[in-house]
Amino acid sequence: MAIEEHHGPQSFISKYVFSFDHKVIGLQYLITAMFMGLFGGGLAVLMRIQLASSPDDPLVAPETYISLVTMHGTIMVFFVVSLALVSGFGNILIPLMLGARDMAYPFLNMLSYWTIVPACFLVLGSFLVEGGAAAAGWTAYPPLSALPEAVPGSGLGQTLWLAAMTLFIASFTMGGLNYIATILNCRAKGMRLMDMPLTVWTYFLSAILGTLSFPALTAAAIMLMLDRHGGTSFFLPAGLVFGNEELPHEGGTPLLFQHLFWFLGHPEVYVLVLPAIGMAFDIIATFARRPPFGYRMSVYSLLSVGVLSMVVWGHHMFITGMNPYVGEYFSIATVIITAPFAVLGLNMIASIWRGRIRFRVPMLFALGIIMVIGAGGFGGIYLATSVSDIYFHDSYFVVGHFHLMIGVVTLMGTFGGIYYWFPKLFGRMMNETLGKVHFWLTFPAIYTIFILMHFQGLSGLLRRYADHSIYGFAEVGKTLAPTITYLTFVVAGTQFIFLFNFFVSIWRGKVAGDNPWEATTLEWAGPSPAPHGNYGPTLPEAKRGPYEYDPAQEAGNDFAPQAS
Amino acid sequence: MEATIVTSEPRRIPAAQIILVVFMGTVTMLFAGFTAAYMIRRAGSDWTHIPLPGVVWINTAILIVSSVTIEFAWRRRSQRWTALSLILGAVFLLGQIMAWRQLTSAGLGLGANAHGSFFYMLSAVHGLHLVGGVCAMIYALRKGSASRLIATYWHFMGGVWLYVLLLLAV
Q1: Which helix (H) or strand (E) is A241 found in, with range?
Q2: Do A226 and B110 touch (CB under 8 A)?
Q3: A543–B5: do the CB atoms touch at under 8 Å?
Q4: Residues of A in contact with B46 (CB under 8 A)
Q5: Labelling A21: which of A109, A365, B53, B89 has CA 20 to 30 A away?
Q6: Residue A140 burial (CB < 10 Å; 0-12/13-18/19+)?
Q7: How far, CA to CA in Å, does A137 sit from each of A43, A65, A69, A81?
Q8: Residue A264 and residue A262: Cα distance in Å, rounded?
Q9: What is the mean pLDDT of chain A?
Q10: Contacting residues of A for B5, CB less than 8 Å apart
Q11: Is the separation of the CB atoms in B63 and B92 below 8 Å?
Q12: Residue B117 near chain A (CB below 8 Å)
């Protein structure tokens, strides 16, 4: 880039509010995600209280409980994990790790953030409207989502949900376009694609997957909107009766929505999980003091995971009565994903092998990711197989599985990333002891919660039910519920330690040097905190691969930065 | 320690071109999604084909002509040809609104017939994407003529329209 001089923006508004600087935008995303996370996590706590309270004295009515479930899922997937991990860290890390001054299109980047802000308000505001927030699940299946009169939440709440999703998709597409252009175009001099840190590779794939799969949801959302407000019958079949009157719709197919939704929904999982895996690779390399095992193998595995993720959506729909041969195909294709995923997991484990491990906080979270991918992936095999999935479908087994994968993996990635790149952003370290307390209280508890949910599902406990006591089955699952509720309190409470640590460390943390972790990648080639423009007058050049560590050497002498 | 010494400089493509290509990929996937929906919905037992409003064919001709004029616009760096393409684009959009009115006055509102619903929806979504192209032309006119990238996008959206027409007509 031919920018010679760098005058940072001067006024408060241009510096912190409508900023073009990728780091500020990334932080805006992160902080927005933290706020939304408090809210979405709070909903989870409310759900657990409801499940633990006596059926005679429930916390909320069943239709409100469904709203809680719906909005917890929506907020966590689209407004916490997507915002923190993909938009937040993506913006912060891509230019820094590529040795660029900013994203390819800083204005588009700012626009993308300010598109998501109204979406957040719509989501939060939907709790205040008549009928309450949307209640058709985060998947918004019709007819529940298509008939405004179906349940209280199907009214204005669902409309606001759809409006928020539209804004989210617009914002995410802008971000994705920007990521792809930046990665292809703004790499440091000398950096080939195969010299990029794995984190950048995962963002690259995640952006491609996002831009190619989100349009299917856009199409579905447009049709859903027309069914709700235009009187069309895309998803609404004939013969629906409401209040003893037959509705005028005819000929629509509710299943069509499910196909379109999951065509997005499944790749979306990888959009979220891949960056966490990439970060884990980078963090493990730094703290095991050796290059990740099989860099190229990991890149090719990531590529094949990406391609496969686009063609397996049907495994979410095994019980819809699909043709058994189609189900067979989706089963086999899904199980094939295990192969590249196992390569990734084994490469992570092999990366630690004979390393000189430093058990700092980011490393703990990265090691946690390996463990969770193992357990989560194992449950996935049972859900990929149509025979067992028919039993597990809509049970807590599914809830446990997907929370491990897109809940815990991404959360561990986000936390690990925050502890690891905090000095880059603020020039200070987060408190190590509080960080360790945070990890050791969060990880075992959250892991146990979702492993126990697998057992609840095995015993037949069904998800989304506000009150299980009226059903005479799944006794084992019911007895596990109180434990899960207590652990939820532990996890939720512990996050305040993290928030305290984060905000206090911004001003009071121990001052970090430019490269506190003795890492090699380009983001550490400039000063910390990174100034406007990221690097001084000259941009770094990539002179070698991203991970030149040697555990055999003395500490301090065991790494060669990519820029030197 | 072995160091990977990099000698060759990677080839770079202009960022705007990358963005355009990926965006066209996104739009393609959007219409692929609609196509899937159309195929499945069409197999429904209540499906009846309706004749498309006649003005659509005139609109299509106008859009094809505008693709020719925008080619002149960027090749000759001509503001006049750009303005002409812009006008043709706007006429096409107005023509599409006329098509909707023809259909509505024939008693086929948005929800009356599934085939008609698809016509309204697909032409509206296509029209919105075309509005983006018109805005880009207006922006370009302030400084000069339409660029090659705008022309590429315009051809692409023209192609999408021909595809939509083919899908709905047969």
Answers
A1: strand A241-242
A2: yes
A3: yes
A4: 238, 250-251
A5: A365
A6: buried
A7: 14, 11, 7, 18
A8: 5
A9: 93
A10: 543-544
A11: yes
A12: yes
HSE-up of residue A308 (Cα within 13 Å, Cβ side): 20
Residue A10, strand partner residues: none
Inter-chain touch B19–A180, beta carbons under 8 Å: yes
Find residues 39-98 of chain B whose CB sits inside 8 Å of chain A: 40-41, 44-47
Cis (ω within 30 of 0) for the bond into A529?
A: yes
Measuring CA to CA, how many Å separate A425 from each of A86, A363, A524, A540? 17, 19, 11, 18
Out of B13, B47, B117, name the one closest to residue A185 (CB): B13
Is A116 in contact with A83 (CB distance < 8 Å)?
A: yes
* pLDDT greater than 90 at residue A326: yes
pLDDT classification of A3: cutoffs 50, 70, 90: very low
The reply to whether B163 touches chain A by the CB within 8 Å rule is: no
Could you tell me which of A493, A470, A472, A468 has the C-alpha nearest to residue A480?
A468
List the structure tokens of A68.
């809680």
Q: Which two tokens stand for residue A356?
A: 């000189």
| 3-state secondary structure labels for all residues of B4-60 | CCCCCCCCCCCHHHHHHHHHHHHHHHHHHHHHHHHHHHHCCCCCCCCCCCCHHHHHH
Residue B50 is inside which H or E element, if any?
A: none
Predicted confidence (pLDDT) per residue in A341-395, tens digit: 999 999 999 999 989 999 999 999 999 999 999 999 999 999 999 999 999 999 9
If you measure CA to CA, which chain A residue comes closest to B41?
A252
Q: Could you give the count of Cα atoms lying within 13 Å of A384 in the half-sphere of its Cβ?
A: 20
Write the residue in B40, B111, B114 that is nearest to A230 by C-beta.
B111
Residue of A172, A209, A249, A256 to mutate when probing chain B, most B C-beta within 10 A? A256
Report helix, strand or coil for A246. Answer: strand
Task: Identify the CA nearest to A287 among candidates A526, A553, A544, A518.
Answer: A518
Q: Give the one of B18, B34, B114 whose C-beta lies nearest to A219's C-beta.
A: B34
The residues, any chain, with a CB within 8 Å of residue B169's CB and separated by 6 or more, are: B52
Q: Rounded to 5 degrees, what are φ and ψ at A211?
A: -70, -30
CB A244 within 8 A of CB B55: no
pTM over 0.90: yes
The nearest CA of chain A is from the CA of B1 a distance in Å of: 7
Tokens representing A453 are 């949910």
Distance, C-alpha A130 to centroid of its chain = 30
Token pair belonging to B141: 């006119």
Size of interface A-B (CB pairs under 8 A): 139
